[in-house]
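Follow-up to my post from last week.
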Amino acid sequence: MARQATIRIETRGQGLYEFTRKAAAFVAEGGEEIGLLTVFLRHTSCSLLIQENADPDVRGDLDRFFRRLVPPADDPSMRWIVHTTEGPDDMPAHIKSALTAVSIPIPVTGGRLALGTWQGLYLFEHRDAPHRREIVLHLST
Amino acid sequence: MARQATIRIETRGQGLYEFTRKAAAFVAEGGEEIGLLTVFLRHTSCSLLIQENADPDVRGDLDRFFRRLVPPADDPSMRWIVHTTEGPDDMPAHIKSALTAVSIPIPVTGGRLALGTWQGLYLFEHRDAPHRREIVLHLST
Amino acid sequence: MARQATIRIETRGQGLYEFTRKAAAFVAEGGEEIGLLTVFLRHTSCSLLIQENADPDVRGDLDRFFRRLVPPADDPSMRWIVHTTEGPDDMPAHIKSALTAVSIPIPVTGGRLALGTWQGLYLFEHRDAPHRREIVLHLST
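User reply:
Got it. Predicted complex:
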């Protein structure tokens, strides 16, 4: 048995957007005691991340690390990039997506997501412009 | 309920090899309306990637980025590598595998993979020599 | 149908800790012929990795690569890090976790994990101090 839903997140530039509550609400709806929630992102220029939900500086540092590891295509160190037609932030976004994840399965135990105390679910937007992102939630029991 | 199959991909050096159609054909065979397809790679020197299926330059740039981030073991910057017995491309292949993914679950909705418009499924080969790679497909409903 | 268990691993500093046998034992207990085992880590400063289980130098090189890519926060190249309250190894640990994985689904075929010949399951500890880590095992059939 399985059920699904789609959630949408409006992003406003690069950074992490939490959606733990939305995922938890979807799990709670059905009342299943045990199961597996898969969160799946339908895009190739953003990603999904489970990260610390306490100190917001962690999210800031994560964002800074990935900007330094994969600078925009107009940075002198990135002159080798060929795919630049969609702007200097596009190809780096695909690379950051490849370095992280687009699909994460999370066990459900006792009717709740089995996340650790400090774990939150985030959409990691890698593009500069606002985007409407879709995440498919799939719960199997 | 679940069913499985194994697909094999013959690679000819580093780069991305698409197998979206093979995965979609496996999903279509059973006619399940809703489910979860897991693609699992049985190797440690290549990886799986969901990436843009439109402009081939995206795949070229991805390949170039990973070659620059993790050059072959005979590159002066990689002299710290100890595991060199299988050639200069072997340990970098394990590292690139660790930086990407070997298993990706994808929801099935309305009898089809819930991939976004621009998402394709790729085997990312990190070795120079030709290899025969095995991917296990697992569909649960 | 699904069953779950939690395993605990005591780590003693950065490096890879194998738990393939514990996961295989959990799979064997139930006697299911076909299924999907998901291994899920309840932490944000370590990660899960499927890697070569033959030459231990591979694990050493992996550890060295990630230390070089993401040095401790007191390294001159990492002065941009803001989140330093939990020590110089903490924020790099979150970054390494984002670059790897915290959840991996593995098909079960013929009653056994469908791992390739050279694939082992590892907890990748990124913190210096000893930690008690929890992994949730979820088997669905």
